[in-house]
Design brief:
16 helices, disordered C terminus, 68% helix, 0% strand, mainly alpha
C-alpha cells in the first residue's frame, strides 16, 4: 500500500497540473499531503482506502484529460475507473461523480458539450451503481438504509454543521490529523481562493464535503465517518492549504524584493515555502505514532487469535443496536 499511496500522490500532482494549477502550488500541495499525519498513518497501513485513493486520483486525471479529447474510446477510461471504485470499497461509489465538479475549469467550455458529457458519464455511473446493487447488495443481503428519510436530512444545515464539528474535533485533539500549522494554512487558502477563485474553492470544498455527508447519511448508521474515509480526498485539502502557503511566500518575496535582488528574493521565498510546509512535521511527530481505532482492533485480533488453538478461533459478535449496521469487525471489537 505504501507504493500505491506514493503513486496516488504523483497522480494527484499531474491532475492538479491538468487543472491549470501553477507548478509551485501543486508541488507544495504534494509536499503538504505527504507529511500530514493521516497521510502517513493510513497511507502506510493495509487499509483498502489507499487503493480507493489511487483509483480516485486516476479517475480525476482521466476525466480532466478527457475534456480535451474527442476520442470516445479513450474517454471511456474515466467511467471504467469509476466502475472499479465500488469493487474495492462499496461506499467508494460516492466518489465517482466528483470529477464532474472540476471539468468546467479545463478543456471545452461549451455548455452543450459539458451537458452531453455529464449525461453520458452519469448514465454509465447509474449502470455501475445498478450493477453494484445487484451483485453485492442483493446477493449478499446487505442492509439498505432508509434512503427517503436520510436524504431529507442531507439538505439540512445541522448536517453540514455536524461535519464541521467532526473536522474541528479531529483537529483539536487526538488524532489531530490536520495539525495546527496545516490548519492555519488551510484557513489562509480558503480566504485567498474565496477572493480570487471562488468557483474553484467551491468545487474543492464540495468534493470534500459531499462524499462525507453521503457516507454519514446513507451508508453509516452510526452518525460518524471514520478518519480513513477522508484519505482519498485529503489531497484536495492539501491543495487549498498550499494556496495559503504560496500566498504567504509571495508576500515574503515582495517584502524581500525591497532590499535584495529580485532573483534572490524569489529563491528565498521558495525556500521559505518549502520550510513552511515542513513545519507540519515537528507538529506531527507525536501523531505519526498514533494508532487509529481500526489498526488497534486488527492488532488486538491478530494477537488474540494467535494465542488460541486453531479449532478454538471463533468470534462472537455483539448484537448491533441498528439493523442497518452489518457485522463489521472494525466496529465490533470494542
Amino acid at each position: 500500500n505504501l507504493f500505491l499511496h506514493a503513486a496516488a500522490g504523483g497522480v494527484f500532482y499531474v491532475a492538479f497540473r491538468a487543472l491549470l494549477i501553477e507548478r509551485g502550488v501543486a508541488l507544495l500541495a504534494l509536499l503538504l499531503w505527504a507529511v500530514l499525519p493521516l497521510s502517513v498513518r493510513i497511507g502506510w497501513s493495509d487499509a483498502q482506502h489507499v487503493q480507493v485513493e489511487l483509483l480516485f486520483a486516476l479517475l480525476l486525471l482521466a476525466w480532466l484529460r478527457a475534456q480535451d479529447n474527442r476520442n470516445w474510446p479513450e474517454r471511456m477510461l474515466a467511467p471504467l475507473l469509476a466502475a472499479l471504485l465500488p469493487l474495492v470499497r462499496l461506499e467508494a461509489l460516492v466518489l465517482a461523480p466528483l470529477p464532474l465538479l472540476f471539468a468546467p475549469f479545463v478543456g471545452d467550455r461549451r455548455r452543450s458539450r459539458r451537458v452531453l458529457d455529464a449525461l453520458v458519464y452519469g448514465g454509465l455511473l447509474a449502470m455501475s451503481a445498478a450493477a453494484v446493487f445487484e451483485l453485492f447488495v442483493r446477493r449478499y443481503d446487505m442492509p439498505i438504509p432508509d434512503l427517503a428519510t436520510r436524504m431529507r436530512s442531507l439538505f439540512s444545515l445541522p448536517e453540514y454543521l455536524q461535519l464541521f464539528r467532526q473536522f474541528v474535533f479531529v483537529n483539536s485533539g487526538m488524532p489531530n490529523w490536520f495539525p495546527g500549522p496545516a490548519t492555519a494554512l488551510l484557513v489562509i487558502g480558503v480566504v485567498v481562493l474565496a477572493a480570487r477563485q471562488p468557483a474553484r474553492l467551491a468545487a474543492m470544498l464540495a468534493a470534500f464535503c459531499i462524499p462525507q455527508l453521503l457516507l454519514d447519511r446513507l451508508f453509516n448508521a452510526e452518525g460518524m465517518v471514520g478518519a480513513r474515509y477522508f484519505l482519498p480526498l485529503l489531497a484536495l485539502l492539501a491543495l487549498v492549504a498550499a494556496y495559503g502557503l504560496a500566498t504567504v511566500a509571495e508576500g515574503f518575496r515582495r517584502l524581500l524584493a525591497r532590499y535584495v535582488e529580485p532573483s534572490s528574493a524569489t529563491l528565498a521565498a521558495r525556500a521559505a515555502a518549502v520550510l513552511g510546509a515542513l513545519m507540519v512535521v515537528p507538529a506531527s511527530l507525536p501523531l505519526y505514532h498514533y494508532e487509529y481505532a481500526f489498526q488497534g482492533e486488527h492488532r488486538f485480533l491478530r494477537q488474540a487469535l494467535t494465542a488460541l488453538p486453531t479449532d478454538a478461533r471463533v468470534l462472537h459478535l455483539p448484537v448491533r443496536g441498528d439493523d442497518r449496521i452489518h457485522n463489521d469487525l472494525d466496529c465490533c471489537l470494542d
